[in-house]
Every structure is written in C-alpha cells, then in structure tokens.
Amino acid sequence: MKNVLILYYSQSGQLQSVMDQIVAPLALCDSIQCDYQKIEPETPYPYPWPFYKFFNVFPEAVYLDGCPIKQLELKKEYDLIILGYTSWFLSPSIPVTGFLKSDQAKKLFKNKPVVTVIACRDMWLIAQEKMKGLLKDLDARLIDNVVLTDQGKSIYTFITTPRWMLTGKKNAFWFFPPAGVHEKEIASASRFGDRLCKALQHDEERSTLPLLSNMGAVTVNGKLIATEHIAHRSFLIWSKLIKKAGPQDSKGRNVVITIYAIFLFILILTVVPLNMLFRWLLSPVRKKSLAETIDYYEQPSGN
Ligand SMILES: Cc1cc2nc3c(=O)[nH]c(=O)nc-3n(C[C@H](O)[C@H](O)[C@H](O)COP(=O)(O)O)c2cc1C
Asked: Which residues in the chain come in under a pLDDT of 50?
C-alpha cells in the first residue's frame, strides 16, 4: 500500500479543483491511500480581497515570512507528497510558505519525493525558485512540477486576474475572456493522476527521475522571463520600504502602498512593454540562450 499526501491552499477553490482532478485517479487505485489536507492559516485571508489588504500582504509574501498555520491531523509516513500552491507576488502564497516553515513540515518532508502543482495567472518562475529553496531546507526531493495558467494573453489576464481577486467576478466582459484557468485545462489535469498512479505501482517515485515529463506538465513563456526578473528586483526594494513604513494595515504602510501601486501601474505600462520590445529585437541573436533558460525553468517535468 502506498500513502500519498495531498496538500494545498486555495481561496476561490480553483486550485482545489485542479488537485481534485489529479487525485481522482489515485483515489480509485486499490493500492494507494490518499490523505487530502487543506492548509489553513490561523487567521484566514479575505477573498475577494479589499484593495489595501491585497497589497498589505505583499512584503510578507516576497520575503517568505509565512504565517501561523493550524496543525494538520497527519498520522502516517508518506511515499509521495503532492503540494498545490498559488503564486502571490512572485512567491509561494503566504499560507503555503507558513506551512513549509513549520515544525510539522520538517518531519513530514524529510527525504520525501514532492510533486508541486501551481495554478496561477502566469507568473510563477521566481515563486518556483523560492519553492525549490524551501523544499531544499526541508531535505525534500522535488521530482515534478505541474503548472496551469490563466486563460488568455498576459495583456488580458493583467486585468482579468486582479478583477477576479478584488471583486470575486470571473465572468467574461467586453473583449476579455473569463478569469482563471480554462475549465478544459483543469479537467485534463487528471492525466497526471493517471500517470502517478502507474508510477507508484512500479515504485518509480523512489528513483531520481521525474514521473510527469513529456506530458505537457509545464510550458514556460519565454517572453515573461525577463519581466519576472525585473519585477522581482523592484519587489525586493519596495517590500523593504513598505515594511519600514509600518505594520500591516497601519496608516504609514497604506501611504507607501498607494505610492507603490501607482509606480507599479506605470512600470507595467512603460518598462514592461519596452523591455519586451527590446528582447524581441534581440531575440534572433539570443535564441540559444533563451532556449537554455526556458529548458532550465521547465525542469524537472518539461517536454
Ligand atoms: C495576493 C495575491 C497575489 C498574487 N500574485 C500573483 C503573481 O505574482 N503571479 C501570478 O501568476 N498570480 C498571482 N496571483 C493569482 C494567484 O496565483 C491565483 O491564480 C489566484 O489566487 C486563484 O487561486 P485560488 O483561488 O485557487 O487560491 C495572486 C493572487 C493573490 C491573491
């Protein structure tokens, strides 16, 4: 009998639907016991998010401060851990970071193979780098990464995802597609569960090789790599300034957040398109190095 632990934190239920699809084939398998656990912060985060609350968590997300998490009821040793997380400000969400920094996680993850599952807008590269660091600190073994991103081009999701987070509205409007990952893509995540089921039956999780390669588990959008790096550099500076301005929800912090939100808006409308144009012009000479970078970020489960 193989024991699989499925851990996740989801606010709207989208990531939970993805996890449900992956778990369904595993739960049908007689030789696999699934333990499905939701990570819960001691103080819940709002959803939909009030504007200032949304930006108030920004520095703590970026600096991986985490938050206190309710103790989980876990009894067994696990053969495989499937960890579902969303990206918050290019970082793993605060509740997932909080759990990974807890004493409970230290025992749970030690020497265990881990499959990460991400469902986010489309900016997850830096978050996954941070996740790799957190898992390394726990002596866990990252064997696979599955990534599902919101439907529509980046230019549309720049509007549809924040609108969804701040109002709870996911519907299509004007020329914008609905927010979130496409239903079909969520449904097709069951193929990963099928593959994991077969792999567990053959003890493949004990090897060092990925179990989900060549299945379209992860596709890196080369155009977003530089954008993420530029944004993250500015996130580190602004997070420090916002933290210095005061604790969460203080007047001082909200003033700096207002300045930051204006800065971010201008940055996205100016520096980001200029950078994309610059990269596009350079792309013929940078083809090889870009392909190598994409290949790096698509590991371990790339095509
Ligand atoms: C505070 C916050 C920050 C976010 N930052 C990012 C981000 O940096 N990159 C990204 O692709 N998505 C980002 N998102 C979207 C989430 O990754 C995710 O798609 C959304 O929260 C829905 O997930 P859930 O309802 O299953 O929790 C953010 C969401 C929140 C609430």
From this structure: none
Backbone phi and psi for residue 173, each to the nearest 5 degrees, phi listed first: -150, 155
290 lines ligand 1 (CB under 6 A): no
Chain segment 138-193, per-residue pLDDT in tens: 999 999 999 999 999 988 998 999 999 999 999 999 999 999 999 999 999 999 99
DSSP state string for 134-168 = HHHHTT-EEEEEEEEE-SS-HHHHHHHHHHHHHH-
What length does the chain have?
303
Closest CA to 116 of 87, 139, 144, 90: 144
pLDDT of residue 169: 97
**Gap from CA of 285 to ligand 1 centroid (Å):** 34
Ligand 1 near 90 CB (within 6 A): yes
Q: Where are the alpha helices (DSSP H) in 57-145?
A: 58-62, 94-100, 103-109, 125-137
Q: How far apart are the first and last CA of the chain?
A: 30
pTM of the model: 0.95
Q: What are the b/e assignments for 173-209, b being 16+ CB within 10 Å?
A: eeeebbbbbeeebbeebbbbbbbbbebbeeebbeeee
Ligand 1, atom 20: nearest CA belongs to which residue? 120
Domains and CATH numbers, the chain: 2-220 (3.40.50.360), 224-295 (no CATH)
Amino acid present at 237: I
Give the model's pLDDT for residue 267: 80
The radius of gyration of the chain's CA atoms, rounded to the nearest angstrom, is: 19
Query: Is the distance from CB of 143 to CB of 112 less than 8 angstroms?
Result: no
The answer, yes or no, to whether any atom of ligand 1 lies below 6 A from the CB of 15, is yes
Tokens representing 38 are 């939701």
Q: How far is the CA of 245 from the centre of ligand 1 (A)?
A: 24
